[in-house]
Amino acid sequence: MLQPGNYSLVLTLQFLLLIYDLFVNSFSELLRSAPVIQLVLFILQDVGILFAAIVLFLMLFNTFVFQAGLLGLLFQRFQVTVLLCALHLALSVSLHVWLMNLRWKSENTFVWSDGLQALFVLQRVGK
């Protein structure tokens, strides 16, 4: 069980993961000429998003509502949060796979298809 003093540590961890996610989304286009570094940043970003989701679930599992067995109530209250977290992870992974497939073949050309641009906008707006 988490003590009240430990919530600040968990909140700090969530903020650090959010800042890293924002950092990679903001500056990953600057590393277009180095696809290996961009691949490592994307993998770490996806692992960070997954880790943030795990921390969210652990926080939900430590509530009194979960321990009392009221899973329906807990899922009803946090349904949008869980779905948005899963949607953000799915959009990020699909965007990263598509970008790396295009960048790995031709690293110095600027290739943006209509579908990639739509996925890019959806992933950025879906935050």
UniProtKB/TrEMBL annotation:
<keyword id="KW-0926">Vacuole</keyword>
<protein>
    <recommendedName>
        <fullName>Transmembrane protein 138</fullName>
    </recommendedName>
</protein>
<feature type="transmembrane region" description="Helical">
    <location>
        <begin position="80"/>
        <end position="99"/>
    </location>
</feature>
<feature type="transmembrane region" description="Helical">
    <location>
        <begin position="36"/>
        <end position="60"/>
    </location>
</feature>
<keyword id="KW-1133">Transmembrane helix</keyword>
<dbReference type="Pfam" id="PF14935">
    <property type="entry name" value="TMEM138"/>
</dbReference>
<dbReference type="InterPro" id="IPR024133">
    <property type="entry name" value="TM_138"/>
</dbReference>
<dbReference type="GO" id="GO:0030030">
    <property type="term" value="P:cell projection organization"/>
</dbReference>
<feature type="transmembrane region" description="Helical">
    <location>
        <begin position="6"/>
        <end position="24"/>
    </location>
</feature>
<dbReference type="GO" id="GO:0005774">
    <property type="term" value="C:vacuolar membrane"/>
</dbReference>
<keyword id="KW-0969">Cilium</keyword>
<comment type="function">
    <text>Required for ciliogenesis.</text>
</comment>
<comment type="similarity">
    <text>Belongs to the TMEM138 family.</text>
</comment>
<keyword id="KW-0970">Cilium biogenesis/degradation</keyword>
<keyword id="KW-0966">Cell projection</keyword>
<keyword id="KW-0812">Transmembrane</keyword>
<dbReference type="GO" id="GO:0005929">
    <property type="term" value="C:cilium"/>
</dbReference>
<keyword id="KW-0472">Membrane</keyword>
<keyword id="KW-0325">Glycoprotein</keyword>
